[in-house]
Amino acid sequence: MSKVQAKMFVLMGPCGCGKSFLGKLISQELKITFIEGDELHSESNINKMKSKIPLEDSDRYPWLQAIIDKATKLANEKNSPCILISCSALKFSYRNFLRKNLIEQNIIVWFIYLKVDKQILKERMQKRDNHFMVVDMLESQFKDLEEPNNEENTVIIEADNNTDLVKKVIVENMKVSSAIY
């Protein structure tokens, strides 16, 4: 009997777009595994961001590999057919790295880009307490951001406000995209 192909949904976008908050709500509603991507950053990455030093590709690829390793472990260990993760995945090359390496592990990836106006992101970030990503880092995120444009298995959701509506749209897209239910 062959292994069931796992599915991973990546809530992506710059800091403050709601990846973690929505991820927790959606995982509870759908009773699926949620991985908080920020928790997989190395201590040196976190210290850089706290010091207002933007991450470079050489910092991000080991983090992306940690995400792949965690997702693969969960898919194999628990035989989790569906995993939800928060990961900025700002550049096209990062998304392709995830796609390529996860498909090799029999995990299909969908990206859900939470598109939010920069001013709204600034306001949200100013209200956050005890997060290593400070508002001063937002510009570096937008500098790196390559919005998905007609990429395979990708949906763009306007996530400026109304969390309940955004969550509902994401859940519906997950259901349609993967026939998880």
UniProtKB/TrEMBL annotation:
GO cellular component entries: cytoplasm
> Does ATP-binding show up as a keyword for this record?
yes
From the Swiss-Prot or TrEMBL record, what is one GO molecular function term?
gluconokinase activity
GO biological process terms, semicolon-separated: carbohydrate metabolic process
EC number in record: 2.7.1.12
Q: Which reaction does it catalyse?
A: D-gluconate + ATP = 6-phospho-D-gluconate + ADP + H(+)
Q: In which pathway does it act?
A: Carbohydrate acid metabolism; D-gluconate degradation
Q: NCBIfam families, alphabetically? A: therm_gnt_kin
Q: Which family does it belong to?
A: Belongs to the gluconokinase GntK/GntV family.
Query: What is the name of the protein in this document?
Result: Gluconokinase
